[in-house]
Amino acid sequence: MDELRHARPAEPRYGEPKTFSGQLMSSSNQRVSRFDLGTFSVSRLGFGAMQLAGPGVFGPPRDRPEALAVLRAAVEGGVDHIDTAQYYGPDVVNDLIREALHPYPPGLAIVTKLGARRDNRGGIVLYDEPHQLRAGLEENLASLGADRLAAANLRLVDGAPADTRFDDQLAALVQARDDGLIAGVGLSNITVDHLLRALALTEIVCVQNLFNLADLSSLPVLQECTARGIAFVPFFSLGSGMRGPNPVLGDPRVRTVAARLGATPAQVALAWALDYASNLLLIPGTASRVHLAENLAAASVVLDAAARRELR
Ligand SMILES: NC(=O)c1ccc[n+]([C@@H]2O[C@H](COP(=O)([O-])OP(=O)(O)OC[C@H]3O[C@@H](n4cnc5c(N)ncnc54)[C@H](OP(=O)(O)O)[C@@H]3O)[C@@H](O)[C@H]2O)c1
């Protein structure tokens, strides 16, 4: 058992868990269920901050005041789980989070991912040797102005084997946790083999893989996480970043259900995910307060039996 679980100070500071027995209200005043992300209890409607950077997730945002306002509105609306990375911008998104939200409220779970960095032209290059993972984490802490994060995900490249190199990468994150820089270790873009191999070595608090109505290929990973009570955090839950026209928001099943329930396609996509498994934590991304409010209000969209059948 992780010692951090037992080392709760009387007065939580940022980076420490808050004890939370109830449910938060979203901006739509609906109850949003919660789930544990390691030592943190978080609303299942979180926020992915990647969209706050400029085009191509590189450089400054088109509308900086709006980006800051989105972050503040997210937290005011009940979001207490924010996903980020130093390589968004780079540093642009972390700087925005710091400017908008620092000093961070106790219990706000900021989660980053490690394994890549940006070159001068915006290209993504690997930064995933064990010492680079540690350096990447320290760069995140510096730009966020934090001593400790709720978790860091070891972000693997497509097709990475579950081998001794993976063990060494994981060991770097375990060391960072033991040194108090993160409360929990997470994994991203993984297979069930990675998860089982990692669990033989240490506790894993979250897994972040692509998962949405149009791409269920990570279902075995989700099921393994569900069986073990590990938070599963899908990225691209609104179908962004996938080939061709948006396969989620443009899905005829989603559009039909949305029209019948008086909801938007984005809300149906999020409600479907919330309904799918109780350990699933959403991090939809947006750079707009209008879309943010719409996404938080997905908590009030109840899928009836007919909708569940249609979306299956
Ligand atoms: N682990 C990984 O490898 C990995 C990879 C990618 C992303 N991520 C994480 O996952 C998070 C989510 O990913 P994402 O933001 O790329 O994809 P997403 O959540 O599927 O979709 C975001 C896109 O949908 C639009 N959108 C948001 N709300 C909407 C609404 N209500 N109606 C219509 N369009 C809406 C946004 O545009 P507007 O800004 O115009 O609203 C944005 O273009 C990221 O922020 C990041 O933290 C992780």
Describe this structure in words.
The chain is an alpha/beta fold and 312 residues long. The chain has a single domain (17-246, 277-301), classed as NADP-dependent oxidoreductase domain (TIM Barrel, Alpha-Beta Barrel), CATH 3.20.20.100. Helix content is 35%, strand content 17%. It is built from ten helices and 13 strands. A seven-stranded parallel sheet has the order 5-6-7-10-11-12-13. It has a two-stranded antiparallel ribbon with strand order 1-2. A two-stranded antiparallel sheet has the order 3-4. A hairpin with a 2-residue loop joins β3 (34-37) and β4 (40-43). α7 (252-261) crosses α8. The longest helix has 15 residues, at 130-144. The structure holds NADP nicotinamide-adenine-dinucleotide phosphate. NADP nicotinamide-adenine-dinucleotide phosphate binds next to α9.
Bound molecules: NADP nicotinamide-adenine-dinucleotide phosphate
How would you sum up the major sheet?
7 strands, parallel
How far is the first residue's CA from the last residue's CA? Answer: 38 Å
- For the record, what is the CATH homologous superfamily label? NADP-dependent oxidoreductase domain
pLDDT averaged residue by residue: 91
Structural class: alpha/beta
CATH hierarchy, class: Alpha Beta
CATH architecture: Alpha-Beta Barrel
> Number of helical segments?
10
Number of domains: 1
Give the strand order, joined by hyphens, for the main sheet.
Answer: 5-6-7-10-11-12-13
The coarse silhouette is globular
